[in-house]
Amino acid sequence: MGNDTVTGAGAAPRGGGVRSVLNALTILEALSARQPIGVSELARAVALPKSSVQRTLRTLDEAGWAESSGASGGGWRLTRKVFRIGMSGSTAATLPDAARRHLTQLRDTYRETVHLTIPDGDHIIVIDRVDGTNSLRTFLEIGTQAPIVSSAGGRAILAQLPPEVTEELLRDPVTVHTATTITDRKSVREQVEQARRRGYATNEGEWREGIAAVAAPIVVPGGDVLGAVSLSMPVGRYRTLDLPTVSDDVRAACARIAESVAYRL
């Protein structure tokens, strides 16, 4: 692999680095732009010998960065590990500061706990929280993981992801968390599609017994989804909500957070 000559527009630069690493990064970039893609087509795109590309893909597969569909002619694609790493680092560091004022305003309006989450593979992670002021309120520790398919914040994020990423996350069996967890894949897809149309997602006791939430995605200019904001409460209070008004307020908070993040970039 060290003797391969890399040329062409998509090729790795010469000198200054370990050739195999540069080639692997070039292949990752090409996969991102063209997935799914066959080995021969990928080799032409990066101007590398097919044998070198095959070896690199096998290594990336072992490391969990790329995978083959397994079907004839299905080609190679990136795994959600790449998406998870790309989203988590800088987002987790900057998003809470940009969001805190807007989370607090939402809490003050409804007196319910507000959670800020980011995607992490097939889960979402709570990276900030503003506690509700009601005597009976919900609570999740910062760092808590919630299932992306069974939580309001997760569905709000799923509805904004690229279709191929969403489909990959929806193809695994759904874990049962409560008696009301939706496990039928068709029904889960319908929930995600509904969230896409409405601009917000809900969850009524599907992850934690007796706990409901309304959530919306944080989408920055260009269409990237950074995370979600969820207003969480006991199911009894959720059922008395004016849902159109509440969802509008949650969406508006997310829009303001997105503006604040964009301003800081």
Please give a structural write-up.
With 265 residues, the chain is of the alpha+beta class. The protein folds into two domains: 19-78, Arc Repressor Mutant, subunit A; 82-264, GAF domain (Beta-Lactamase, 2-Layer Sandwich). The protein is 47% helix and 18% strand. It has nine helices and eight strands. Strands 5-4-3-8-7-6 form a six-stranded antiparallel beta sheet, sandwiched between helices. Strands 1-2 form a two-stranded antiparallel sheet. Helix 1 (19-34) crosses helix 3, helix 2 crosses helix 3 (50-63) and helix 4 (80-110) packs across helix 9 (243-264). The longest helix has 31 residues, at 80-110. The two termini are 38 Å apart.
The CATH topology of the largest domain comes to Beta-Lactamase
Total strands: 8
State which percent range the strand residues make up: 15-25%
Could you name the CATH homologous superfamily of the largest domain?
A: GAF domain
Corresponding CATH architecture of the largest domain: 2-Layer Sandwich
